[in-house]
Amino acid sequence: MALRSADSYRASLRDGRVVFYRGERIADVTEHPVFRVAIDHASIDYHMAEMPEHRDLAVVRDEETGLDTSRYYKAPRTADDLLARSRLIDAATRLGATLVVLIKEIGTDALFGLHLVSEMVDSRAHTRYLDRVRAFYQHCRDNDLALAVAQTDVKGDRSLGPTEQAHPDYYVRVVDRDSKGIVVRGAKAHTSVSVNANELIVLPTRAMREVDRDYAVAFAVPLNTPGLTMVASPHGDSATSYWEHPIASRHKMVETLTIFDDVHVPADRVFLDGEWQAAGALAHAFVQFHRFTAVSYKLALVDALVGVAALLGDRIGIEKETHDRAKLTWPIAYAETLRALVSQAAARCDTSNPLGIAVPNTLLTNIAKLHFAGQYHEAVAKVQELAGGLLVTAPAEEDWRDPVLGPKLRHYLGGRSGVDADVRARAMHLAQDLTASEYGGYQEVLAIHAEGSIEAEKLAIFRQYDLEGAKGYARQLAGLSQ
């Protein structure tokens, strides 16, 4: 099969999965008006494989099978492979109007991390996890599947470990084992694209202690597995007008609270079971790839912020003012610094692992992520400052369409000479959707929390930088022997 169509992808989601939305069990996610937007958005990945201008980027010839497959499933071996993956993520996100598609990006990030850690566990514990990971990877690749990842446990009391909680299900755990597999119970939060994926990969969220061994578990199950329930977030479901919400009305990602009520996982789908020493390594291996994905898909978003700020300045006649041009200089530098860090994270990748998989440079990837997240709100503020108060006080689409009110609005809400009021309004609504809508708020929360917190990025940077080498150089300059 290797590559499938968008229609085939949509049809695969009609499988009896258990999804609740605003208290209602959804019989068919493909027919629900909110989920349909998310499915159409996710279909971008399948359309790209058929688009002449994107096919060379989206599709590669698999060396093992000789079939054309999605580039997302190509394990990176070189810096060029990582750069091509980054360009694909960027291109898909641009087609998604600044919203990442994610149905293969996140899942393959997890698969690459699972390859690395399962090899490590097998070499130490004489297990056979790598064979299982490879078989599952081939299944997903050869069937062109959409993947979701559940990693973040609900956690309960954050000051306590998994076994110290008031009840044992704040972290996903194994509650039974037999020769056929395991049974798991618990819940994961923030599970992106789960309502419209085919397979769910479950990973540990943190390092574990020996007493936590039942929580050191990784596995994969189809989304219609008995006992698996998804409770979908309603955030952003009111954006239906393309005039007022040019992004959010046509592009959406759904997150769920994902509940495991004694879900049986077949043995060949279990990738970690009780090897507590590897839980932290697996969590880390996943984010090494996923933060590189994150900074790659942020490129379209930061470019959009620069573009809409410049567009607004042009429409209202301030683009030639020195102080307003200066307001654009910072966002441009912000965007280009992020792009340079992404390129260097690929160029300085690490291929020293036994499997020869190219791992993006951890230090530079985290610096890129911190650069984006730590300054994103300032970038939003720059756009809001240029846009002015109409971001939140502009009349509604119905007012613009009204035969009596519309002409009055066009009379009073024009821009510089030669700029139609409707053109100015459309630019303003794009700025509003990016920075002052539910979608804008969604992106601001993602900047802080998605793919790891700001503090996690700082910690990774601290651990990765050669502080001892820097101190040695300082001692040399100071003429110190110790």
The strands making up the biggest β-sheet line up spatially as: 2-1-10-11-7-6
The percent of residues in helical segments reads 40-55%
**What is the annotated CATH architecture of the domain at 281-472?**
Up-down Bundle
Q: Per DSSP, what share of the residues sits in E-state strands of 2 or more residues?
A: 5-15%
Counted by DSSP, the helix tally is 17
CATH third-level topology of the domain at 281-472 = Butyryl-CoA Dehydrogenase, subunit A, domain 3
Silhouette = globular
Order of helices and strands: HEEHHHEEHHHEEEEEEEEHHHHHHHHHH
Query: Average pLDDT value?
Result: 94
Overall SS class: alpha+beta
The tally of beta strands, per DSSP, is 12
CATH superfamily of the domain at 281-472: Butyryl-CoA Dehydrogenase, subunit A, domain 3
Q: What is the CA-atom radius of gyration, in angstroms?
A: 24 Å
Written overview of the protein:
This protein is an alpha+beta fold and 482 residues long. It has a domain at 281-472: Butyryl-CoA Dehydrogenase, subunit A, domain 3 (Up-down Bundle). It has 17 helices and twelve strands. The chain has helices at 6-12, 33-42, 44-48, 55-58, 79-95, 105-125, 129-142, 279-315, 322-347, 362-387, 390-393, 397-401, 405-412, 421-435, 438-449, 454-464, 467-478; strands at residues 18-21, 24-25, 59-61, 68-70, 147-150, 173-178, 181-192, 199-202, 217-222, 228-232, 255-266, 270-273. The strands form three sheets. A six-stranded mixed β-sheet has the order 2-1-10-11-7-6, with no helix packed on it. Strands 5-8-9-12 form a four-stranded mixed β-sheet. Strands 3-4 form a two-stranded antiparallel sheet. It is globular and about 75 Å long. The relative contact order is 0.11.
